[in-house]
Each structure stands twice: as structure tokens, then as C-alpha cells.
Amino acid sequence: MANGEQSHADLSQRAAELRRLIDHHNYLYYVEDRPEISDKEFDLLLKELEELEAAHPELITPDSPTQRVGGQPISAFKTVHHRLPMLSIGKAFSALELREFDTRVRKALGKQPITYVVELKIDGVAVSLIYTDGLLTLGATRGSGKAGDDITENLKTVRGVPLRLRTANPPAHFEARGEVYMSKADFARLNEEVAARGEQRYANPRNLTAGSLKQLDSRITAKRRLRLFAYSVGYVEGIAIQSHLEALELLRQYGFPVNPEIRSFDTMDEVIAYCESWAEKRFDLPYETDGLVIKVNDFEQQRRLGATNKEPRWAVAYKFEAEQAITKIREIQVDVGKDGTLTPVALFDPPVQLCGTTVSRATLHNAAQIELKDIRVGDSVIVVKRGEIIPYVEKALHDAREGKEKVFHFPTKCPVCGAPAVRENGAPSPRCTATATCPAQLQGRIESFAKRERMDIEGIGEKLAEQLVTSGLVKTVADLYYLKKEQLIGLERMGELSAQNLLDAIEASKNRGLARLLAGLSIYGVGEGMAPLLVQEFPSIDALMAASKEQLAAVKGFGPRRAESVYNFLHGPGQKIIHDLCAAGVKMTEDVKPKVTSGPLAGKTVVVTGTLQNYSRKQIEDVIAQHGGKATSSVSKKTDYVVAGDDPGSKLDKARQLGIKVLTEDEFEKLIGVR
Description:
5 domains; D-amino Acid Aminotransferase, Chain A, domain 1; 24 helices; 24 strands; 5-stranded mixed sheet; 36% helix; CATH 2.40.50.140; 5-stranded antiparallel sheet; alpha+beta; single chain; Helix Hairpins
């Protein structure tokens, strides 16, 4: 018995030593940036601890490094309320606006000396981390600023997040706030992986980070290699902190990664010079940043300055101007979309560097835009990156023309299949008329059908869709449900395991329901927003097929044109597709929820534009529907509200022209009673 107890004591001691070593090396890697051992040596330590705890579960502690791998999936996130609001920060886009901020601060504080702390604004997701007696007990998203989602298990998978504070005397309650982000290298790695599977690439690191933190299965989050920079403290008990710089130093001591690019200045001239010095340097960073944050250092001065309902008066975010470059349009090529629309794409010579990437092409959107901006082949043009993501031709430099530039004429035949391309009256671009047979349209429809928000068939992306079309295996989306493993194995990069995974994904998609099916069928005017409205009135395919054009037009938001599109599809080319899908066992009904007939959005039409802090586009549309409203994509006289986020674009201008009420994200949440 004594030997057994001694053996267990030895095991317990070894587990404790392994935890200490792993935490130590984790701290050196993520906080100090001076690793002492290789990744392989670190992995061996972690593996030994995992095996020891697997054999002796009683040795597992809440702060063990093994708890970062993710646990069992949960059904939903719980809402948690922040003891101190997580406010957004006002923005400045020029040196003049920074000086105006400085004037307001100095006017409020009188002749007191002021120190500003300037730090990089990491392009990630804001989170709150709460420690009770030194142990991580809660992690949450910013959410509305007053309440967020409990994502504790997901945040435990972020290696830079301490599971226990590195101090022998932790405060009773300590809240750290920071930005979770993904490095450029890890983002590129993940995009290479999805591209190799033939799937659509992720748009940008921030969106992928946000999506990773909202996974119900924390094991998925663990695979994303997310990182953290702590940037402030929230509610604390048992400790006194006098300034922001003191708070940052305390965060470092407690084991949090704090961005090294932090400086303090006593004058706004110095602040502006430092901000402007990052205009080019930022592209050399291993992570994305979209500006810098300037804060009054002294906490007592912060308290005196106070805050509005939305943002503190003692801080401002300096946002970099949209980067632009000048190049020439060497050629305009035409792509063909899933509905046959011919889309012009400008090819640049030479390619230009924007936001750290090489841009060699950009969409010109449609024929109407080319005509409006008078863009010609050979023109010198200004190219910008909107939101530092999407390249966009701002305008042509007409004064730089030399007389050799050529007006672009759209082809009268489809560049892919050769069928006539016709521009109907009022249409922004011509369309290929070979709706049923054009390979480019079919490929686009397959990609659209397989999207996550539609039938969610993992594995089908641009490359695989192209192979399925060119090989003749798929002539309509219904053919996906009749594919055989032996047919797929003959395709490029498609082994037996990949083929089986694809077939399993196709089989799983059969139960998505009628609304997602309709959204995936590429029917004009029926996407994720309109399909649920349609099935609310006609919850089965039989009911939908039996509906007249007049009945379809009576569905709120549809009207005659959209109704005719649905009717013609169901009683024309779509009839056989529906039949084949039904025969394959695809669900043709929808479990509809009762209509919301009361509430602030009941019967209202809402358009969302720009990037929101707390919602993805799908999430905000769901919230609108849950409160009885209808989310649409275009602004018209029938629009009741426009919700405007960051970089709202032309929809905001149109709303103002039409006198439509514009809501900020905070105002929208107040309207529906979230705040």
C-alpha cells in the first residue's frame, strides 16, 4: 500500500512539474517572444502530460495545459453581462481629427499635463477574460458592449490566454480585456488547406477569427491557432491600478501577451508622427492591423473625462486611410456567373501593391458602371482596397489619356459557351441566354448550391465544381445526389477517402429543409433572405408548386417580377430538378415558426450595410426575422430602416437621399430591446 501511495505521489509530482514546464515555455513563447525549446520538444512535454492524465484522470486540474484542446460540443452560448461595459472607440481618419480630439481632452482637463499611450489596433475580436482567485472562470465576447456570449471553452484553446494568473497573490477578481486574432501565416495555411479541398477560401483573418470563436465545438476552435494580445483591464477587486501603462505592465506580469509596439507621448504632435510612421510599416507585421488607439494614460483623468453611452471620451482610434495606387488597365475580360450575367474584370499592368498584397485584377461590376465612370482599356486608374480587403477601381484618370485608349464593348456571345448574350432594357449587364447548358453557369450554380448557408456540402468549391461539370458527371445540381464513389475517384486530387467524405457530406445535406434548398437553386430573387418568407406561406414543395403567380406575388417582399421568376422555374427547367431531388430523398418541407405579428420590427423592411461589430450578416438577418422584420439587400422607398456599420458604402447615401431612418448598431439593439 505504501509503495502504491508513493507511486501515485510521484505521478502527481511529475504532472505538476509538466504543467509548470509547459506554462513556463508557453509564457516564453507567447509573452516574452524568446522560446528556449523547439516546437517538437514542447509537443513532447504536452504529450507526456496528456498520456499521464489519460491514465490518471484524478490528476487533471482546471488550469492544466491539456484543457486547451477543446471539449464536447455545446448546444448554444449563454449570455453573460459585463460588470463594466465594453465600449466601442470613436474614430479619427486624419491628423486634423486627432488634434480636435486633443483639444477636447485638454479643454476638459484644464492645465493638467497629459500623457497619451499609443498602441496598434489589432484587427481581431474583442474579448473579456475573468479570473477568480487567479483561475480563469469566464471568457466572453464583447457582444452589445453590455452583454456578450460565454465562450470560455473556446478561449481556453487560445494558447496566449493564461489559464491561471502567474502570481502567488492573485486578486479576488480580475478582468483582462484583449483582442483575439489570427496571424497572417496561419490564415494563409488554413486557406491553402481549404483550397486543396476545392473549397472557397476565407475572406480575411478577422472574419475567420470571429467565426472560430463562435464555434459550438471548441475542438474546431483549437485547430485554428488563434492568438491573443491583452490591451486593458476591466473590473478588478483587491488591487489598485493608477494608469493604463501600469495596467499593461501588470498584464505582462500576470502572463498575458501584450503587444510590444506601445509608446507614450506628452504632445499630440508626437502622437501624430508616430501614427503616420506606421502607414507603411504595418504591412511588415505578422498580423493585421487597421490603425492605432490613443488613450489618456492616467485613470483619474479618464474618470474625469467620462464616456457617452457608446464610447469613452478619453480614447480615439486613428484609422489608416484606404490605400490607393495608380496603374493601367491592360485588358478587360468577362466572367460568367451562375445566372449568366457577364461580369467585366480589369487586368492591371503593372500589378500594384495594396495593403501588403499584390493586386493584378479587380471587378468592374457591370456594364452600367463602366459607362458611368467612362472606363476604357488602356486607361490609367486609381485602385483602392475597400476595408483593406476587396480591390476596387475608384475612377479612371481621364486627363492622363493619350488617345490610344479603347472603349470596351461587351461580347454579343457568351465567352464560355458561345450562346447569344443579351442585355435587357434596364439590366446593368448582358446575360448568357443558354441557362440550362452553359458550363460556367452550371459551375456557378453548383458552388452556390453547396455554400455553408445553403445546402452546406463540405468539399465542393470552385475546383471540384469545375471538374464535375467538365467531366460530365453533373448536368444539374440534382445530379450531385446520384454520384458514385467510383466516378469521383477518377477526378484530380480525389482519393477513396476524399470521395467518401464528399458523398457523406452530400447525404447529410438532404435534411437542410425547403428554405435552404430554394436559396441554393439559383432562382432569381430567392436567396437566404427571401426563401424563408416564401416557405412561411408555402411550407412544402407541393404547396409551392400549386401556387399561382398572383399568390406568389402576394408574399410580402416578392411582387410580380420575383413571383414570375419562381413560378417559371418551378414549372419550367426546375420541374425536373425538383423531381430528381425529391426522388433522391432531399427534404422538400420546412418546419415553419409562427409569424411574429408584434414588436418593433413587425412588418418592417430592414437593410444592413457595412461591417457590424456584434453580428455576421447571417446573424443580423436572423435577428431581424426573429423580431418580425424582413431583411433585404437593396434600399428603396419601401425600406423602413437602414442599419449602418463600418464602411457602409452607397446604400447609406441612398438611404439619406430617400429620407429613410438610419440606425447605428447600438440604436438597432435599443430598438429591439437588446440593450
